[in-house]
């Protein structure tokens, strides 16, 4: 059997916390920010926990 290789792109996008939760950055705050209101850009700051439905797939990609 070949060795399992974790998905490196997923590893760069998500982080596993000490308790095992998977957190990610919010999307939409990279470019075209002049057209977005400050209310919207503030809402996109910070990290959020990955949705419960997506957690098994992300864990599989990370090799956990």
Automatic annotation (TrEMBL):
Pfam families: Ribosomal_L35p (PF01632). It comes from the Bacteria. One of its GO terms (cellular component) is cytosolic large ribosomal subunit. InterPro entries: Ribosomal_bL35, Ribosomal_bL35-like, Ribosomal_bL35_sf. One of its GO terms (molecular function) is structural constituent of ribosome. The keyword DNA-binding does not apply. One of its GO terms (biological process) is translation. Keywords: Ribonucleoprotein, Ribosomal protein. The keyword Ribosomal protein applies. HAMAP family: Ribosomal_bL35 (MF_00514). Belongs to the bacterial ribosomal protein bL35 family. This is Large ribosomal subunit protein bL35. It comes from Paractinoplanes brasiliensis.
């Amino acid at each position: 059997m070949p060795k399992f290789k974790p998905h490196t792109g997923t590893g760069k996008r998500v982080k596993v916390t000490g308790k095992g939760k998977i957190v990610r950055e919010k999307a939409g705050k990279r470019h075209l920010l002049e057209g977005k209101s400050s209310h919207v850009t503030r809402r996109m700051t910070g990290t959020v926990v990955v949705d419960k439905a997506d957690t098994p797939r992300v864990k599989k990609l990370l090799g956990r």
